[in-house]
Amino acid sequence: MAKARALDKRRRAIRNIRKITRTMELISTARFRRAMDRATAATAYTRRITALVSHLARSGLEVSHPLLEPRPRPLKAILLTLTANRGFCGGYNAAVMRLAAPRWKALQNEVPEARLEVSGKRGIAAFRFRGVQADATYLHFEHNPVFGEVEILADRYLEAFETHQLDQLEVVYTKFENLSRQYAVVETLLPLAGIEGAEEEAGEAEGTPYEFLPSARSILDEVVPTSFKMRLFKCFLDAAVSEQIARMVAMKAATENADTMISTLTMTYNRARQTQITSELLEVISGANALMDEG
């Protein structure tokens, strides 16, 4: 009877775990849908404004902007790493750290002054485990990044870049393309002269005439910083939706594994219970036969 009780106790424990993983799966699914809607809405705008800046930078107009100035020999750089505050999301954080850790070592050798900034408890702990203390940490960027919070960070980077306290900004995060494809990347956000991914759309607009009102300079002063802010915000949005997808997939797999274990334990429990009942019946029959023989 002890074995059957132990199996039943284990089965109840797994059922409780299954309730937790199933609930986390449903929560992640709901958060993923909201995050994906925001990321999708921001993608088209970010891509278009990035393409516009890229086109203006190559248009040959007599305009310039500090953010568009290339700095081939950066002296001061920041590596911003975006991870999650929570676990239970499969290899999401590990994939980011596999890029961030070696990139940080390389950046220290490439520039005289390098700063490490990390968003998310998991990234902070991972760097600390490697003996690296981040220069700045952020814990308030949860599953629903707010543009106003990201803008505060972006304004600080912009001011540092324009005053030559920063020459290069790189971001390590998980890029979101669709439900089945997310991958960790390292992207250079500053300077904007090296904009990637905008060449195709800029090429489409190559023959488009522009008329600047009130002036090209005033337009650039508005569009260029906005382009950077949106690109940084898009990094946070991509990271948020990718985290929810990873957690949703991980919790779905955990729930399915729990179902399999419960089914297996139920079969084992039924067999153990049947064996115990059979053993108890044999004991009763043997006792009855012994009494009859004595009589």
Describe this structure in words.
The chain has 295 residues and is α/β, with parallel strands linked by helices. The chain contains six helices and five strands. A hairpin with a 2-residue loop joins strand 4 and strand 5 (181-190). Helix 1 (2-57) packs antiparallel against helix 6 (216-294), helix 2 packs across helix 3 and helix 4 (147-162) crosses helix 6. The longest helix has 79 residues, at 216-294. It is elongated, with a radius of gyration of 29 Å. 32% of the residues are buried. Mean pLDDT is 83; it is low at 196-206.
Write down the overall mean pLDDT. Answer: 83
If you compute it from the alpha carbons, what radius of gyration comes out, rounded to the nearest whole angstrom?
29 Å
Shape: elongated
> What is the helix content?
55-70%
Distance between the termini: 32 Å
Order of helices and strands: HEHEHEHEEHH
The amount of beta strand, in percent, is 5-15%
Q: How many distinct helices?
A: 6
| Multimerization status | single chain
Number of strands: 5
The residue ranges in which pLDDT falls below 50 over 5 or more consecutive positions are 196-206
Widest beta sheet: strand line-up = 3-2-1-4-5
Largest sheet: 5 strands, mixed
Q: Structural class of the helices, strands and pairings?
A: alpha/beta
Key words describing this protein structure:
alpha/beta; 5-stranded mixed sheet; 295 residues; 6 helices; 63% helix
